[in-house]
């Protein structure tokens, strides 16, 4: 890092100056601001920019001058290398004037001035509301779920089967909650016909085109969560 | 009553029954009532009235889970003649109510944010007449679309203020969640942040064959981080290194909203439309979600996930099954990579009763067979890095964007291996226009099963080298590929390719 500093200083022909009490140190921060966006020094004094502990790429560069001062030409091309953290950079100002500096990575928020032997710019008027941050003040979430899992079986009751019109069997039942109900007519262990319906409370499903014979009527119900009711059976003879 | 017949592909085995109940056997009709069965069903509450009441009680405009999730309007065609859906969109200024009681000036397609959703069907071309009513150049890129070069929204092909352009989209590719956004040169970080983004859902018959949730159970969700000023306007500060970071997460333009869900299966289609933020999504305390699709549509098989990383411009489609939860249950979708309270809360699902019987199905087997790519006939390495010559710039292969220079000239129908080499400490979501690719290899580990489908954007991680295989079909012409961290892409992480006959 030391070598970078020296070469930067030499490259821009800055004269080494003895340390003065009025030299300024400005820190670039990861909140994307300079800790001192406006400093005042006298000609011959030095400003050092540093980036302690930053995790984002920053640097400092000239952003020209304000007003028609006699300008040190080397300021115009002043720029320091990017880095994470960036190396320190320094510049000794010899001519009076108002010098503007910037981090080009964060140009909307990281800019400032060095007033050299001139009155510092007056404090800026308060920003309009359209430029003042309204920060998100919501508390950190602590609970990520408030959940009741449905493990309860639905209740299936009042199962009955009656003959309706020719070849139609009406199977009535009651389910205690929203369920899918499967009605099957079985004979000799084989499912001959079945019908599916969905709903809650009392209802019925008609099984149509049933051939004559004696059947076991099986009713199954599964609730929305997939919990199954105890299977209910009855029987019917179709003539 | 419906006779019982198993639907195609759903089968009737024990496993399906366990996952899907009787619903997997057939389209289920409501059984005939002896008394008023419907009386016990809870009607969905009308969102605007209740949310207004809630908003007033909220301590801060940033309090999460106060607002009901908005669903962007679906754009209606102005004509459907000759098998082509014609749409008309004005790109214009608008006002959004994002923070309760505040007005946020935006740029918007039809003046709204997010822009209206376009629902297209494979095999039916659409024409979108975009009229630029802004005071500066704009254009529209259909991200993820197989689109002829002239209609792709190349950064230098712009619509001047007051002019229109008819973007023609063939819709010949398989179903996928695409999106459309501004792509005028050097300005996307600004224009997308201020609202120029909308979703484009291309569907095909496979969605139906598989029984994937549709209509109100198929929900597009646009994620974007924002910050605000005291007058309610969006606050933006340029950060060329990290890209923009806001302190607030918006889903479909609402601050960390709540979404009322029935005890049903939902298809949640996430789009990361943030300038530069990646999200790491986790449901509740780590409940599994089933990923069925990525950028380029369906995966070959569903992939079970407990966390989902989604980089800028990527899409992830998840099936979430709320059937096992009792009404009143609340489940937060968090961003576990959020660095502040406001960037941790994405949204919350509030379970209510009702919804009737499930008619949709959770796929368990093969959903799609991905086409085989031709053998690659070239290998390229693209280094990604930050430079300070001519201002601060990100570059690909040490080159900035130059519209007068073509960087690659692949042959139509060929494929190559592209190695993204990222020695930087930032994620670079690298996106190829007009074409799709597959991820072949990652230096950080095996390619996740959810990343093995068709992709148009890959989040190349800090320090990672990732190899992708683009397939240069179906159109010839000039396209760009670039970093979709918008501050990177604008400055100037973008190169050009020309696909030649
Ligand atoms: Cu990038």
Question: How would you sum up this structure, described in words?
Answer:
The complex is a heterodimer of chains A (239) and B (501). Chain A is mainly beta and 239 residues long. Chain A folds into 2 domains: 5-116, Sandwich (Immunoglobulin-like); 156-238, Immunoglobulins (Immunoglobulin-like). Chain A is 6% helix and 44% strand. In chain A, strands 10, 11, 12, 13 and 14 form a 5-stranded antiparallel sheet that branches. In chain A, a hairpin with an 8-residue loop joins strand 13 (213-223) and strand 14 (232-238). Residues 1-21 of chain A have low confidence and may be disordered. Chain B has 501 residues and is mainly β. Chain B is built from 5 helices and 32 strands. In chain B, the strands form 6 sheets. Chain B has a 7-stranded mixed sheet with strand order 14-13-11-16-21-18-19, with no helix packed on it. A 5-stranded mixed sheet of chain B has the order 15-23-22-17-20, with no helix packed on it. Chain B is globular. Chain B starts with 13 loop residues before the first helix and ends with a strand. Classes of the chains: A mainly beta (239), B mainly beta (501). Strand 12 of chain A pairs antiparallel with strand 2 (32-33) of chain B. Copper (II) ion is lined by residues 394, 426, 428, 483, 485, 488, 493 of chain B.
Write the layout of secondary structure elements.
The complex is a heterodimer of chains A (239) and B (501).
Chain A: H1 2-11, E1 24-27, E2 38-41, E3 45-50, E4 61-66, H2 73-76, E5 89-93, E6 97-102, E7 111-116, E8 133-134, E9 145-146, E10 156-163, E11 169-187, E12 190-207, E13 213-223, E14 232-238
Parallel strand pairs in A: 1-3, 2-7
Antiparallel strand pairs in A: 3-5, 4-6, 6-7, 10-11, 11-12, 11-13, 13-14
Chain B: H1 14-20, E1 29-30, E2 32-33, H2 47-57, E3 85-96, E4 104-109, E5 115-121, E6 126-132, E7 141-143, E8 164-169, E9 176-181, H3 188-193, E10 197-203, H4 205-209, E11 218-226, E12 228-229, E13 248-251, E14 254-255, E15 258-261, E16 265-272, E17 279-283, E18 289-294, E19 297-305, E20 307-310, E21 315-321, E22 330-335, E23 345-351, E24 379-387, E25 393-396, E26 417-421, E27 428-432, E28 436-442, E29 457-460, E30 465-471, E31 477-483, H5 486-490, E32 494-499
Parallel strand pairs in B: 3-6, 5-10, 11-16, 15-23, 24-26
Antiparallel strand pairs in B: 3-4, 6-8, 7-9, 9-10, 11-13, 13-14, 16-21, 17-20, 17-22, 18-19, 18-21, 22-23, 24-25, 26-30, 27-29, 27-31, 28-30, 31-32
Bound molecules: copper (II) ion.
Copper (II) ion binds next to loops of chain B.
């Amino acid at each position: 890092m030391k070598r970078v500093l020296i070469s930067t200083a030499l490259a821009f022909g800055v004269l080494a100056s003895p340390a003065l009490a009025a030299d300024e140190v400005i820190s670039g921060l990861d909140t994307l601001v300079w800790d001192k966006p406006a400093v005042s020094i006298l000609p011959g004094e030095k400003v050092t920019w540093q980036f302690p502990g930053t995790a984002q790429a920053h640097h400092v560069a000239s952003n020209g001058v304000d007003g028609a001062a006699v300008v040190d030409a080397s300021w115009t091309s002043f720029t320091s290398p990017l880095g994470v953290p960036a190396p320190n950079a320094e510049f000794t100002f010899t001519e009076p004037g108002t010098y503007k500096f910037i981090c080009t990575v964060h140009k909307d928020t990281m800019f400032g001035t060095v007033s050299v032997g001139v009155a510092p710019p007056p404090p800026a008027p308060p920003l309009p509301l359209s430029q003042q941050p309204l920060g998100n003040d919501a508390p950190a979430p602590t609970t990520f779920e408030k959940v009741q899992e449905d493990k309860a079986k639905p209740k299936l009751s009042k199962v009955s089967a009656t003959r309706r019109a020719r070849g139609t069997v009406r199977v009535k039942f009651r389910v205690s909650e929203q369920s899918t109900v499967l009605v099957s007519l079985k004979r000799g262990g084989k499912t001959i016909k079945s019908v599916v319906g969905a709903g809650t409370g009392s209802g019925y499903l008609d099984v149509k085109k049933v051939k004559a014979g004696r059947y076991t009527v099986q009713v199954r119900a599964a609730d929305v969560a997939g919990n199954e009711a105890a299977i209910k059976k009855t029987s019917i003879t179709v003539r | 009553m419906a006779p019982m017949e198993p639907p195609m592909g759903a089968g009737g085995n024990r496993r399906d029954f366990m996952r899907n109940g009787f619903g997997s056997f057939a389209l289920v009709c409501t059984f005939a009532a002896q008394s008023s069965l419907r009386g016990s069903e809870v009607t969905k509450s009308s969102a605007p009235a209740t949310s207004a009441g809630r908003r007033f009680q909220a301590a801060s405009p940033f309090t999460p889970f106060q607002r009901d999730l908005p669903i962007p309007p679906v754009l209606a065609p102005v004509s459907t003649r000759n098998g082509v859906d014609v749409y008309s969109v004005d790109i214009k200024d608008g006002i959004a109510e994002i923070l309760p009681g505040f007005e946020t000036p935006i740029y918007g397609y039809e003046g709204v944010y997010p822009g209206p959703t376009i629902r297209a069907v494979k095999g039916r071309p659409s024409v979108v007449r975009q009229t630029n009513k802004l005071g500066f150049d704009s254009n529209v890129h259909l991200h993820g679309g197989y689109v002829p070069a002239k209609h792709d929204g190349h950064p230098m092909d712009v619509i001047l203020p007051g002019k229109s352009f008819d973007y023609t989209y063939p819709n010949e590719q398989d179903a996928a969640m695409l999106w459309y956004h501004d792509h005028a040169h050097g300005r996307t970080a600004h224009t997308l942040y201020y609202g120029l983004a909308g979703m484009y859902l291309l569907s095909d018959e496979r969605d139906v064959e598989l029984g994937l949730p549709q209509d109100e159970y198929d929900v597009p969700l646009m994620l974007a981080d924002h910050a605000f000023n005291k007058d309610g306007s969006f606050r933006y500060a340029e950060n060329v290194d990290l890209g923009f970071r806001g302190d607030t997460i918006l889903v479909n333009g609402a601050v960390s909203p709540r979404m009322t869900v029935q005890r049903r299966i939902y298809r949640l289609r996430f789009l990361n439309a943030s300038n530069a933020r990646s999200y790491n999504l986790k449901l509740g305390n780590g409940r599994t979600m089933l990923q069925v699709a990525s950028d380029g549509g369906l995966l070959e098989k569903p992939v079970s996930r407990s966390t989902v990383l989604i980089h800028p411009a990527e899409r992830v489609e998840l099936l979430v099954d709320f059937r096992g939860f009792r009404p009143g249950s609340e489940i937060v979708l968090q961003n576990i990579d959020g660095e502040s309270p406001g960037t941790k809360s994405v949204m919350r699902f509030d379970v209510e009763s009702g919804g009737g019987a499930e008619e949709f199905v959770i796929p368990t087997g093969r959903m799609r067979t991905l086409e085989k790519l031709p053998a690659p006939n070239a290998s390229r390495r693209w280094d990604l890095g930050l430079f300070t010559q001519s201002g601060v710039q990100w570059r690909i292969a040490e080159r900035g964007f130059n519209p007068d220079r073509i960087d690659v000239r692949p042959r139509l129908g060929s494929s190559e291996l592209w190695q993204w080499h990222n020695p930087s400490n930032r994620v670079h979501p690298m996106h190829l226009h007009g074409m799709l690719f597959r991820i072949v290899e990652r230096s950080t580990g095996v390619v996740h099963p959810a990343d093995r489908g068709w992709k148009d954007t890959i989040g190349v991680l800090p320090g990672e080298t990732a190899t992708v295989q683009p397939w240069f079909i179906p159109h010839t012409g000039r396209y760009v590929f670039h970093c979709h961290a918008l501050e990177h892409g604008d400055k100037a992480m973008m190169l050009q390719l020309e696909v030649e006959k």
